[in-house]
């Protein structure tokens, strides 16, 4: 990932996760002045320091909830990727104010610190669960989007371009369904399926890092970007996993979990009616009208009726074979297959 100038300093909040590591590795590979990681867990920082071993990588212990620690990490920074968040749906359901503190107030701290430090651009990572949210995680991410995107409206002279990206499900991410299915198959246990008809957008980690990179290079003040993605049912995902690993595990239907949706939307029809198609991506610009409330009431948009939500139930659906092919693009799946002594004719 190139930043345009070789001595740029880039801050990644929550940077010890798989996203942060991948972005950091791309930045270091392509020549960057410094990559700073701001996160809470010293053990994960230590691990990343040792595995990546690059003296352009600097670590800041802190919490986005604490404005002072954000300010300290932000000094002299040119670009920010804000990935620090509470992401687990169930824990945010039980402790919604914790989601507000990290995802909303923590993000506001990042917005304010970036503005104060004269940062040039900041990309905020959001999720499809922020669209028509039903759970506290999605609601707090929806508010984070509003906080980041409205900054330029309230501060027209700001030096910082703030933009958001929304992910779908990142395949093989920690604690997600694909590694769970794999461990169930390995243990010879049944595969647990919540609702076979449930659909999700499936994105590889590489796709999601490409999305952030695209936003980084193309963002204008207040933009939100999504990557066009394919979806599948959970039944087809399970079938593809069983076939790839030649497993005869049974399927057990466990029912929908706390605060889950049957499908997810990467963008609402209201947003799509304003979106600009950029090939693999949509740019959703900010509503740039000022605080003139009359306009919101008087100016409707007849085109909205023509659009459907960009929803995992309605986009073209992958077949089981296509899910298998997508799974085979993941390095983790390839190495798991190799470990199990399995090779696929599709590799
Ligand atoms: O035992 C299980 C667990 C999950 N699922 C289903 O698999 C799909 C994916 O589940 P999971 O991998 O847990 O992801 P989500 O709950 O959709 O949430 C993920 O995707 C979000 C982005 O949408 C991230 O913010 C979350 O951190 C991440 O866990 C869902 O339809 C689940 O109902 C099953 O069928 N069986």
TrEMBL record:
Residue ranges constituting the Polysaccharide biosynthesis protein CapD-like domain according to the UniProt record: 10-284
Q: Which Gene3D superfamilies match?
A: NAD(P)-binding Rossmann-like Domain (3.40.50.720)
Q: Pfam families of this UniProt entry?
A: Polysacc_syn_2C, Polysacc_synt_2
The Gene Ontology terms for molecular function here are:
UDP-glucose 4-epimerase activity
Any idea where the UDP-glucose 4-epimerase CapD C-terminal domain is?
A: 287-334
Q: From its record, what is one biological process in GO terms?
A: lipopolysaccharide biosynthetic process
Q: What CDD domains does UniProt report for this protein, alphabetically?
A: UDP_invert_4-6DH_SDR_e
Q: Origin, by domain of life?
A: Bacteria
Identify which top EC class this enzyme belongs to.
isomerase
Q: Which InterPro entries match?
A: CapD_C (IPR013692), NAD(P)-bd_dom_sf (IPR036291), Polysac_CapD-like (IPR003869), Polysaccharide_Synthase-Rel (IPR051203)
EC number(s) for this protein? Answer: 5.1.3.2
Catalysed reactions, semicolon-separated: UDP-alpha-D-glucose = UDP-alpha-D-galactose
- Keywords in alphabetical order, please: Isomerase, Lipopolysaccharide biosynthesis
Q: Which family does it belong to?
A: Belongs to the polysaccharide synthase family.
PANTHER family, per database record: UDP-N-ACETYLGLUCOSAMINE 4,6-DEHYDRATASE (PTHR43318), UDP-N-ACETYLGLUCOSAMINE 4,6-DEHYDRATASE (INVERTING) (PTHR43318:SF2)
Q: Under which name does UniProt file this protein?
A: UDP-glucose 4-epimerase
